[in-house]
Amino acid sequence: xxxxxxxxxxxxxxxxxxxxxxxxxxxxxxxxxxxxxxxxxxxxxxxxxxxxxxxxxxxxxxxxxxxxxxxxxxxxxxxxxxxxxxxxxxxxxxxxxxxxxxxxxxxxxxxxxxxxxxxxxxxxxxxxxxxxxxxxxxxxxxxxxxxxxxxxxxxxxxxxxxxxxxxxxxxxxxxxxxxxxxxxxxxxxxxxxxxxxxxxxxxxxxxxxxxxxxxxxxxxxxxxxxxxxxxxxxxxxxxxxxxxxxxxxxxxxxxxxxxxxxxxxxxxxxxxxxxxxxxxxxxxxxxxxxxxxxxxxxxxxxxxxxxxxxxxxxxxxxxxxxxxxxxxxxxxxxxxxxxxxxxxxxxxxxxxxxxxxxxxxxxxxxxxxxxxxxxxxxxxxxxxxxxxxxxxxxxxxxxxxxxxxxxxxxxxxxxxxxxxxxxxxxxxxxxxxxxxxxxxxxxxxxxxxxxxxxxxxxxxxxxxxxxxxxxxxxxxxxxxxxxxxxxxxxxxxxxxxxxxxxxxxxxxxxxxxxxxxxxxxxxxxxxxxxxxxxxxxxxxxxxxxxxxxxxxxxxxxxxxxxxxxxxxxxxxxxxxxxxxxxxxxxxxxxxxxxxxxxxxxxxxxxxxxxxx
Amino acid sequence: xxxxxxxxxxxxxxxxxxxxxxxxxxxxxxxxxxxxxxxxxxxxxxxxxxxxxxxxxxxxxxxxxxxxxxxxxxxxxxxxxxxxxxxxxxxxxxxxxxxxxxxxxxxxxxxxxxxxxxxxxxxxxxxxxxxxxxxxxxxxxxxxxxxxxxxxxxxxxxxxxxxxxxxxxxxxxxxxxxxxxxxxxxxxx
Amino acid sequence: xxxxxxxxxxxxxxxxxxxxxxxxxxxxxxxxxxxxxxxxxxxxxxxxxxxxxxxxxxxxxxxxxxxxxxxxxxxxxxxxxxxxxxxxxxxxxxxxxxxxxxxxxxxxxxxxxxxxxxxxxxxxxxxxxxxxxxxxxxxxxxxxxxxxxxxxxxxxxxxxxxxxxxxxxxxxxxxxxxxxxxxxxxxxxxxxxxxxxxxxxxxxxxxxxxxxxxxxxxxxxxxxxxxxxxxxxxxxxxxxxxxxxxxxxxxxxxxxxxxxxxxxxxxxxxxxxxxxxxxxxxxxxxxxxxxxxxxxxxxxxxxxxxxxxxxxxxxxxxxxxxxxxxxxxxxxxxxxxxxxxxxxxxxxxxxxx
Lengths: 612, 189, 353
Prior knowledge:
Strand content of chain B: under 5%
Largest interface: A-C, 122 and 113 residues
Oligomer: heterotrimer
Largest sheet of chain B: none
Distance between the termini of chain C: 95 Å
CATH topology of chain B: Four Helix Bundle (Hemerythrin (Met), subunit A)
Number of domains of chain B: 1
Number of strands of chain B: 0
CATH architecture of the domain at 262-351 in chain C: Sandwich
Strand order of the largest sheet of chain C: 3-2-1-5-8
Helix content of chain C: 40-55%
Radius of gyration of chain C: 29 Å
Shape of chain C: elongated
């Protein structure tokens, strides 16, 4: 199956590609499509809630929409967009030619894609899941949700979870093992650091959720009693399993954004990151604490004062490393030369809006205060500030930052800034009023609200904000189109940035580094400007060698072969998943295809097909 | 081909260790569920009505011995002793199969004694926990059998010692998990 | 190859002109002002910011404390950000700034400062937890059992022998001790002005208590997503003067009155002859259904269908005529009734005071 991946651009080359940069593009395109779809779902929700007692959507459809909105945003927009950046940036930042397991990387993408398509197959069939993205038992059990909707939820998350775990494994090994000579841990760029932490989080957080999903599937389809109070079980177990995963999942989504911003702010301040080790370890600490706070999603369950006090305290602790990051970013800018390019605007936009989301988070880390906030629009406001003001702004920041590297074209600054300001305004207009509607008594997941509760104005403003959000995508799409038609050439290092990915041409050749660089410090491209902390004899000429990658590799480069088998394996798993809706035959056939794919994969030579 | 890695540990081995870390969370969750629900079953039969400790002790011993066989197989392949490699790989897979046979017999027996999967809280937690483990053993048996076939074909020698070692890591992990399950399910009944 | 050209390369950038940016910020500030002024006045029957019981008061005071700390932190962070943006913007001809690796004292400072603020928040928090999350110490408390069902609330007063639905009367000044259970899925009991949320979990009995400090009708609704009609699972707690409560309790403990006028008597016939009896109980008659709300004193309630409609003859007729339209998904089937039968039923149910 050897074919030359590098120069071919046909469909077959995309189906078989194992190039991390191409996989990144596929993740990005699909993730962005899901972001738009889930955005439309959010817009429909806001239309229904524009005024009290509207009947634009009927309750069942509304419940389906908010379920799809949340599930899609977290699993099929947020995560793949994060992984898109892992894919594109991490190997370039550590001086590697690809990830540790290129075919596994392709497989991760395909199962993610099939998971998303499978979930959305429920739309034309009109059986969308309607139990919320959190799918609390026993509402989601067969007795109260008899249709196949919840099965679509369970099965799609099971299959895409396999891809997530495979991806976590891949990036963990890549970052630990594939660093260029001299790229010690404490010289890694912050984004790579956060990718390392997040990979570990994925590996440890997804299995409990997988187990919970299997329990749910078995309860629904095979009559087991994992969440059946009548059989002696405790339905709250589902909430524990879900949030043991669900809270680290929040950090899976936010830490990469922190990583991006920690690379972008120094670049556009022309100043190295303030307190690098502190920023690194605060990320480690956030991830570590993230496993010990899940009960703060369950303060109203009635687990008792001791449990609530312990988890409330642990939750408050997270504010400390988060605060440290924010102060270090500000200190990085302090005394710098700030250039407000679009990427920088999104970065500082993140600092500002994430601060608001973080502070409202502190408000409900206090269990008694949370009893008035949980399951209301106050919480909806909070996590949209965190997930849009944090994750999405961070991802857009990374998008504007690395787009020239990925495509070789510049984006237009004016359009980029219009995009930033529109989304910044939209975020605040949509979600700030929700703090009020929540505190004034509006619960979440309600398809309507009564007149006379004083909620009308806030909801109307929120809906107006949602329209601005939709509008904010216009300059973005226009900008993409413009870059495609007549974007200026980007050159190697358009932002005067300091890390390895800027040593090569844009877009990078498929082997990334013609010559594997040797690194002798952090921010190697800024070497002439930075006094190293401890300069040793013979450091000159330091930073990175070669400082700019040669046009052609001096020695032949052996790259991984493209392969169909990851796709075959993923198709097999998709067939098993579809069979999970009730066809044992299809499940077994899928198992067969999976086995064939696995064996063929194992016995196919991974390297050596094409030498360049 | 793969060059030297930053940590000095081969990529695939590091991946297996990481995977085992992830699997610990998987089995940890399953075991925690079993333990939380222990003694909360409301519908007969109960664990002590059915669990056959002597029988499972024997199959547990067989599985433990298979880990020893695995160690011998790895040692054999490392010194390029292909006959011994085939023998020990075959024995490891065979012992795994015997364990699976024992589990099949046990499941079958339980169902006949009135404990199908959907019977009660005990059946739910017991079958899903031990079944997940059994699936892992089955996967391991298939993997080992594949290596055995390669060995018989003469395509496995000392150069593939790392592959055998990684399969061994997996196999030992699955055995260790069973020791925990055996203790918590059978000995603490 | 020389890397220098790339290091100092600049691209032309298009600024959004500053007035526009200023206007945008001004608009945001204005919006904020409008929102805050909105949040402080007006009628908010379901507001967590207008406590009317000891329990809700504790939560509100705690929230206020944390809120002001948060505002303080935000002002500091935002202030620093704005200062940095203005002061350190790159100007043409700027040299590279001095590179700073870090500063130990500063790091320690901004680790300790938030930690101290958190301690200041944690102390009242823990104090409040051990009041709120425990059962009420008041031995004189009025016990009310709350059973959450898709999608309505049953209230039982074991000491008083009262069973009612969606509206609970309680006396002013006496602690109310709620025992919360679920008949089906997760629900959450929430009357913001009286207490924080507490979930209703199948198989578990939860507790919640409060002592109301003013008379009135307090709105609440289910706060845990529970299916199709979750949004319409409302309730009222009516705090009465002790004398009024006594009167209400006496009346509601009694079996149903026999209807006086002919129309209502005919309505009773319709009720007993149709599917109504299989789900609804009217104590003192042969209607003993347990699935739906107890209707023994239906006529004395303020609302229909857990707060969806006012309890007026016209709305009641509408409800009986098209339950699925009024409250989509609810579990009361639409029974075929003639207009006359509906009129009679309305008269009967209205007579159950």
